[in-house]
Amino acid sequence: MENKEQTPDHSLRRGLKQRYVSMIALGGSIGTGLFVTSGSSISQAGPGGAIVAYIIMGIMVYFLMTSLGEMATNMPVTGSFATYAGKYVDPALGFAMGWNYWFDYAINNAVEISTAAIIMKFWLPGVPGWIWSLTVLLLVFILNILAVGNFGAAEFWISAIKVVTILIFLVVGVLVIFGILGGHATGLSNFTYKKAPFVGGIPSIIGVFVVAGFSFQGTEMIGVTAGESQNPGKSIPKAIHQTFWRILLFYILSIAVIAAILPYTSKYLLGSSITISPFTLIFKRAGLALAASVMNAVILTAVISATNSGMYSSTRMLYSMANNGYAPKFFGRVIKNGIPVYSLIATTVIGLLAFLTSFVGPKIYMWLVDCSSLTGFIAWWGIAISHYRFRRAFVKQGHRLSELKYHAELFPLGPILSLVLCTIVIIAQNPSAFTSWNWYEIGITYISVPLVIILYIVYKIVKHTKLIPLDKVDVKPSTKDHE
């Protein structure tokens, strides 16, 4: 009889193909942040400021992904960066990072299914929203309980819809800029309109860091998939480079097209709904009569994709924590097709309970959403410090970089830059709250920071953990990479 409580690298199935790994990360980071709210960055910092901010944050994300790639190819495990924080820094940090990330996506799943209900009201306003939310949650649960290869295939095709939409948008946008569609050539005049291309100087660019950072979150899912990739030593590095360039080009080119057609002073750049989003408006200007319906359908697929990948990553993180002793052991059990079913059920239930608080206590629901707002940046911070410690320990113990299957370039610049920028973004979430010392706003905005610190301190006190000396860090490469 099959043992259902095997070690992490053998209980899950390596069923994720190379193209699935890339699409999971790509799909997790392309959603409403690009399709609906991308225009706000242009309005805030001007076309030049927005592009500069996205490029800088894109470079930071690249360094983070290469840092994660170096560790993931050396030791490919599910829920990787929490494991790495525990092995290369301090077990208490691994505990805090794991629960931080799980909480982030467990709560965000509730946000996404709530968004799905809002989207469906565009077509069927008479149907209660909770029906659509539960439908999406059930669909995502079914996709995640299937074998991981089936999950990857579903995510691949859902994400492909978004990619095709962006490509069509870019082509249509260029035709509008030159007057081939829409009847009026705008050229690049809006890049020098009034105070453009840079509006508000460096403070505005830093403000866009926050928007760009949220938009790029999800790229770290490459690390979460490492334990189930068919050939992590080859698929992870390839996925890192493909995902980085696709995301950066999609965002930069989309922002450039939007900025060329709509001046930074346009009220439509601040549109909070799909009917007045920059994507919809530009499709309408090109003569696409059903632009709102088409984009609404695309946004719905984006929400389903985000929920699907979020459910996957949070389930694997809980599973990984169980195998590392950070969560109850039964969360580490799997069923015959290699799915950590107890972790999946727990994550689904928490997402459902968080969603239900929107009925019984809207303030509680918004508090949960605010609590999870910074967790992605905290996870990135943890990846950077883990890689910094890993590389230093690797060299200190007499290893050569040639021993690594993949190594991040420009060390230690990459992790240090990532640490600095993540810290800036975390502080810049709501600086005005400190100006007036509004303790309520400070608490709501930054509460995830003390929560992580509390998790770290409590585990440290209970388990008596210490910072692992560099010469004691276990940097031995995994022998379980199926090549």
From TrEMBL:
Domain Amino acid permease/ SLC12A: 21-466
Membrane topology classification: Multi-pass membrane protein
Superkingdom classification of source: Bacteria
Pfam family, one: AA_permease
Transmembrane segments: 20-39, 45-65, 130-151, 163-184, 196-216, 244-266, 286-307, 339-358, 364-385, 406-427, 439-459
GO CC list: membrane
Keywords per UniProt: Amino-acid transport, Membrane, Transmembrane, Transmembrane helix, Transport
S-adenosyl-L-methionine found in the keyword field: no
GO MF terms, alphabetically ordered: amino acid transmembrane transporter activity
Entry keyword Transcription: no
Cellular localization per UniProt: Membrane
Main localization of the protein described in the UniProt heading: membrane
Protein name: Gamma-aminobutyrate permease
UniProt organism field: Philodulcilactobacillus myokoensis
Name of encoding gene: lysP
